[in-house]
Write a structure and sequence with these properties.
Number of helices: 7
Structural class: mainly alpha
Low-confidence stretches: none
Number of strands: 0
Distance between the termini: 34 Å
Largest sheet: none
Mean pLDDT: 85
Order of helices and strands: HHHHHHH
Strand content: under 5%
Helix content: 55-70%
Oligomer: single chain
């Protein structure tokens, strides 16, 4: 038996609160994404409570939005960035699907934090979305930006 959902959520939240970006944090993000995806969530994904998902989304957006100011872009970091981005996107997909499927379980603050996280790092953003002069954050890279955009739209419509 691995870590509990609250332990994973709290660990990622702690990295964000302390402002620590490092290889251990990237490995933790990847571990959590892999754990959520295993067996399409049947083994682990549905054990996460709304607050744990919301706190994780907030933490991931907080960490990612700090990337530009605390990061140098050598080849090693680009690989780490790609691993982190993949994990972030997969976790945010879980958050969005959970909101859509369990809307009534989420408190207003949990919804607000999750949607803030989506917008802060551009989850669901693609070039057809236009530009936002008020947000100069680095957008998270997605392998399926159009599908993520539809998922975010569906999530917002549900809320």
């Amino acid at each position: 038996q691995g870590p509990k959902p609250q332990e994973l959520s709290n660990s990622i939240w702690a990295f964000a609160t302390a402002g620590i970006r490092c290889n251990t944090q990237v490995k933790l993000v990847k571990f959590m994404a892999d754990a959520l995806d295993e067996g399409n969530g049947q083994f682990y994904g549905f054990d996460f409570k709304p607050q744990e998902l919301s706190n994780t989304a907030w933490a991931l957006a907080t960490l990612h939005s700090r990337r530009s100011s605390t990061h140098n872009h050598n080849a090693g970091n680009r690989n780490s960035d790609a691993i982190e981005d993949d994990g972030i996107v997969r976790i945010l997909r879980w958050v969005a699907r959970a909101i859509t499927e369990r809307t009534n379980d989420f408190k207003p603050q949990e919804l607000s934090n999750s949607i803030w996280a989506f917008s802060t790092i551009g989850f669901g953003y693609d070039e057809t979305s236009g530009t936002n002069a008020h947000n100069d954050y680095i957008h998270v890279t997605s392998d399926s930006p159009l599908e993520d955009k539809e998922l975010v739209f569906e999530t917002l419509e549900t809320v």
